[in-house]
Amino acid sequence: MSPIHVLPDALINQIAAGEVVERPSSVVKELVENSIDAGARRIEIVLEQGGRKRIEIRDDGCGMSESDALLAIERHATSKIAHFDDLLAVSTLGFRGEALPSIASVSRFTMQTFDGLSESGIEISSDPARGRSVRPIARDRGTTISVLELFENVPARRKFLKSADAEFRAIVSVVSSYALPEPSRAFRLEHNGRVVLDLVPVATRRHRVLQILGNEADGQLEEIDMTIEDCTASGFVTRGLRYGSRRNQYFFVNGRLVKDRVLTHAANRAADAFDFDGHPAVFLFLDIAPETIDVNVHPAKTEVRFRDSGKVHVVVEQGVRRALGGAEEGRGLLRPAEGPARADFPDSEVRNGSSAASPAGSSLFSSVSTNQGVREYVVHEVTPLFQQRAVVQPPVASSPDRLGSLRGRVIGQYRLSYILLDTPDGLRLVDQHVAHERILYDRFARMLEARAPETQRLLTPFLYDAGAAECAILESHLDELRGVGFEIERFSGNTFAVSAIPLAMQRERLETFFGKVIDASLDEKGSHTTRLRERVIASLACQAAIKVHRPLSGEEMSRLVEELLESSNPYACPHGRPIIVDIRHIDIEKHFHRK
Fold first, then answer.
1. What is the rounded distance in angstroms from the CA atom of residue 249 to the CA atom of residue 269?
2. Which of 330, 371, 387, 527 lies at a C-alpha separation of 20 to 30 Å from 57?
3. Average pLDDT per 10 consecutive residues for the chain, totaling 595 residues
4. What is the largest CA-CA distance in the chain?
5. Which helix (H) or strand (E) segment is 587 a member of?
6. Is residue 548 left, alpha or beta, with left meaning phi > 0 and alpha meaning psi from -120 to 50?
């Protein structure tokens, strides 16, 4: 075993950088926090290649003197705390004194700053290969920090960075998040020479929320206002506007953006008390006595620990519940859930392939209400379900080993959502929505590969008004959208004009489709261009596919199953959901005590 020795400062800084600087968005987060702490009224972020090549942050804050600037890039040098007790009352976003030296150790780092009082400004350049240089400069009051070739000297870290598009979207999320509690500050984001985010100062947080979320949220925001002792929850929650994910849920503690399970659970538990389809947008600002929280839990300062997490949970849950409950009383748009949802089954759960209603007497069950209000089901004489049963055989060209077990006879439709097949081994259910989704996904993939999309032109352009953050994310997908048949371009501000759509798409589903594309983009697993294209066409296939609770004729069911057999994967949709569920004949027999 080698003898113990002290690590060199350069290696110590690189190790520390691994805790503070994970990716370009981490750099932007730390530098934007410093600009806010410096009292900047305008913060500009300039990126190249999603921050992998260049990150530059400019602000008009208080700036630094030469001596302070030289100390700022030393480890654990800070002006924000001096004693241990100061950690119990941290009121600034930064306080650890690790960000600048960590960033400088893994990039080509340049800082220009002027405090408005010294004779001149100062420029400090730091390159891991060439060392440090200092020179006086002339500039306005404020600070500019430039970070070039992040992790250039740490190739093991650089190879784990995601694609430029994925890193760019993460930075958009960071910038828009930090703009929310700071409505009086201006934020501007430029990527590859193009302005993608320009948030001008506004009067209130409500106006800033509308900048981020988009004008569609106007009239949908309910105000959160709840106080228990020294803990106050304020902010906004959307009443009728819902999303497929929790991407528009932001939580701040004393102005600090955090990821906390207590806050997330409390807000969503309150929302779950109402009949929501999807997730509401939540913008929650928690103000609490600094001595009752610990902000020094994680090097990235994204986690906090509450002394009384129970009180925090209550104030957040009750605040969100009251906001949504007020909407219910005033407008009657929300209904509190009164236990598990109960589906009212139609008279016939099994259809004979006709789009018309089944005739009386052809149902397997009918419902009878009892005096106690409990619905019972009475068995009737069963009439033939089909005059002609469609027989489905796998295509001859398909592999018998892979598709032979799918051979079956279409016998009906269950709950207007699942196609029933009688197979030699038992009963097979095919989800009509995900089956059609798989078929369309393969079709769109072939179109994208051949660059021959099938489009339909709209009589009037469809205008999609996105929020500031969504606009930047959607714009990064324009090439993929055009490749599958969209004619879309930036119209004005945060609005996109769509003049043509894929042939299988419907105009009324466009807004939901774009929301799904944005949801998929924010999933960081999609880090490569090919994965992003897959997600775009997967979202398109999902929106264009036939829905559940739609009656299908026998011919439609047969054709759907035939095309499923010819697909690249008849067992799972592009999102991974199963298409086919088998119920073995032997298991059915056991239920009737035949085995």
1. 13
2. 527
3. 70 62 89 93 95 95 91 76 62 73 89 93 88 91 94 81 84 92 94 90 93 82 91 90 81 89 90 77 91 75 84 92 63 36 38 39 35 36 34 39 62 93 90 93 83 86 83 80 86 86 84 80 54 74 88 91 90 87 90 82
4. 99
5. helix 585-591
6. beta
Give the pLDDT of residue 530: 54
d(CA 268, CA 262): 10
Q: Are the CB atoms for 484 and 540 separated by under 8 Å?
A: yes
**DSSP letters spanning 377-390:** EEE-PPPPS-SSPE
Contact criterion met (CB below 8 Å) for 352 and 386: yes
3-state secondary structure 78-111: CCCCCCHHHHHHCCCCCCCCCHHHHHHHCCEEEE
For 130-168, the pLDDT digits (tens) are 888 999 999 999 999 999 999 888 887 787 888 888 888
Tokens 């018309």, residue located: 356
Asked if 27 and 150 touch (Cβ cutoff 8 Å), the reply is yes
Rg (CA), the chain: 29
Distant-in-sequence, close-in-space partners of 239: CB < 8 Å, separation ≥ 6? 220, 221, 222, 280, 324, 327, 331, 333, 334
The residues, ordered by sequence, that sit 6+ positions from 594 with a Cβ below 8 Å of its Cβ are none
Rounded-to-integer distance, Cα 94 and Cα 80, Å: 8
Q: Which residues contact 347 (CB under 8 A, 6 or more apart)?
A: 358, 360, 363, 366, 367
Identity (one letter) of the amino acid at 289?
A
CA distances for 302 relative to 26, 90, 179, 260, angstroms: 11, 14, 16, 8
Rounding to the nearest 10 degrees, give the CA dihedral for residues 175, 181, 185, 186: 30
Q: List all residues 6 or more positions away from 343 whose beta carbon is below 8 Å from its beta carbon.
A: none
Report whether 167 contacts 24 (CB < 8 A).
yes
Q: CA 141 → CA 26, 38, 57, 62, 336, distances in Å?
A: 25, 11, 14, 7, 54
- Pick left, alpha or beta for residue 255 (phi over 0 → left; psi -120 to 50 → alpha; otherwise beta): left
Model's pTM, two decimal places? 0.66
Q: Which residue type sits at 248?
A: N
Whether the CB-CB separation of 362 and 383 falls below 8 Å is answered with yes
Comparing C-alpha atoms, which of 491, 472, 25, 496 is closest to residue 212?
Answer: 472
| Confidence at residue 122, expressed as pLDDT on a 0 to 100 scale | 95
- Look up residue 487 and give its amino acid: E
Tell me the one-letter amino acid at 60: D
Give the three-class secondary structure for 549.
coil
What secondary structure does DSSP assign to 217-239, as a single string?
Answer: GTTTEEEEEEEETTEEEEEEEEE
Please tell me the distance from the alpha carbon of residue 235 to that of residue 226, in angstroms, as a whole number: 10
Residue 364: CB atoms within 10 Å: 15
